Amino acid sequence: MLWAAHGHYWMDSIIGSVGRVANVKVRNDDDIVDRVNHFYTTGIFIIFTVVVSARQYVGDPIRCWCPAQFPGTHVDYTNNICWISNTYYIPMKDIVPPIEQLHMRKEKELNYYQWVPVMLLVQALLFYCPCIIWRLMNGNSGINVDRIVSLAGDAQYESPDSRIRTIKYLVRHMDRCLDNQRDTRGWCCVTLRHILSAKLSLICGRRYGNYLVAIYLLIKALYIANCIGQLFMLNSFLGTDYHVYGFQVMEELIDGKEWSASHRFPRVTLCDFQIRQITNVQQYTVQCVLPINLFNEKIYIFMWFWLVFVAIVTCYSFANWIWHMMFPTTRIQYVRKFLKLMDRLGTGPDRKLAGRFVLEYLRHDGVFTLRLIGKNSSDIVVAEIVAGLWDMYRSKKSIQIRSNLNGHETEGEDV
User: Chain centroid to CA 189: how far?
Assistant: First the structure.
């Protein structure tokens, strides 16, 4: 009864901790696929770390079948020495190599089970590292993406008056941020670079309006490399063909084979150790059971399918962002859709001006910010922001045209 009470207490503690983690405020400067990588996957690995660590340090991670003459202290010593020194696996139907062929036993060693909690924490950190890089670097763009997207997300739940004020603030804020990115130099090579960056996306940088997009796509590539790399990293860590593990499990299930203990995570292993007795050294070989591998097997099966799933959805997200951000036509169509929705787009000059509005005013980073707003709030909020930016852009163009006309008239009077 006491054991059951303690187990219930530990379970309540873990569930309570998970609930508190779920309530942590998530930043809004990325999309759902990024959060699957750095938030949900990291959380899953930390939960696995807690489960495995509790099994190792609270229960008995290993139990060895010792000779009958061993007293209790010798049994404890055997369990401890076999846990810290690597055991090895040889199937029951195979003959155990003699002690003279010790190297053949060494080849069958399992040297991972003591380090599983540490490895899980390292994996969690690797999934969070791209997120840290993104948050450190996106601040250099001059656009506070997190604040803009957070306010836009909150605006959809506000009252009409508060919503209007928030949208106006976001429009003014984005306009200042976009102006802050502009290169005011008028050299010919600078103009050519801006054309290459806007039309062909060949040059990247803050002054070319595509810094955020370039960094974001780099982070996506890091997420993909991390997912695929971890499959091969675990292959080296476990010492088996882990990168094909999931395929073999599916093949067994399809063929209707009984899912028995995997040779990658054996429950019953062998252990060699020596006991020094004054004048001689006694060699012992005992059979041990590893209950911890019952958990490790299930964890690493789930992990294989999860890593493959995350890699696939991240690759899709990466390709989707490239398609929507690298080609000028897709960016223009995206913004025109919202201008039509808000009845801001007429015919003739307005349609031509909309292209310049996207390529010269919003540029890559402006459209990227609008897409993030859409992924974290709603298309209605994006449409209202686009309409506000369009009105501001047209008013600036009108003032510029009038000032140019007044300048020509003044020159004519002087002549």
Answer: 38
Task: Report the distance separating Cα 266 and Cα 292, nearest Å.
Answer: 10
CA distance 36 to 197: 31
pTM: 0.81
Query: Which H/E stretch holds residue 110?
Result: strand 109-110
| Residue-wise pLDDT tens digits, 12-24 | 454 444 444 444 4
Task: Tell me the pLDDT band of 216, cut-offs 50, 70 and 90.
Answer: very high
Q: How far apart are CA 345 and CA 348, in angstroms?
A: 9
Task: Tell me the backbone φ, ψ of residue 39, rounded to 5 degrees.
Answer: -110, -60
Cβ neighbors of 228 (< 8 A, separation 6 or more) are 311
Residue 321 CB: number of other CB atoms within 10 A? 18
Q: Tens digits of per-residue pLDDT, 281-314?
A: 888 888 888 888 888 888 999 999 999 999 999 9
Quick check: 80 and 74 in contact, CB under 8 A?
Answer: no
Show the DSSP H helices in 26-115 as ranges.
32-35, 41-57, 72-84, 102-106
Q: 271 - beta bridge partners?
A: 286
Cβ count near 110 (within 10 Å): 19
Neighbours of 56 (CB within 10 A): 19
Bridge-based pairing of strands 280-289 and 87-88 is: unpaired
Among 142, 167, 209, 206, smallest CA distance to 386 is for: 167
Distance CA 411, CA 409 (A): 5
> Tokens 């940088």 belong to which residue?
205
- pLDDT tens per residue, range 135-158: 988 878 778 888 999 999 888 888
Question: DSSP strand E in 228-334: where?
Answer: 268-277, 280-289
Q: Which two tokens stand for residue 43?
A: 């959380």
Q: Is 2 exposed, middle or buried (0-12, 13-18, 19+ CB in 10 A)?
A: exposed
CA 33-39-43 angle, 5° bins: 130
Q: Which amino acid is at 296?
A: N
What are the structural domain ranges in the chain? 30-184+195-326, 328-398
In the beta sheet, which residues pair with residue 284? Answer: 273
User: Which 3 state secondary structure label does DSSP give 202?
Assistant: coil
- What are the tokens at 213? 């997009």
Measured CA to CA, the distance from residue 195 to residue 328 in angstroms comes to: 11
**Alpha carbon of 301 to those of 47, 240, 340, 397: distances in Å?**
15, 13, 49, 60
Does residue 321 contact residue 216 with C-beta atoms inside 8 Å?
yes
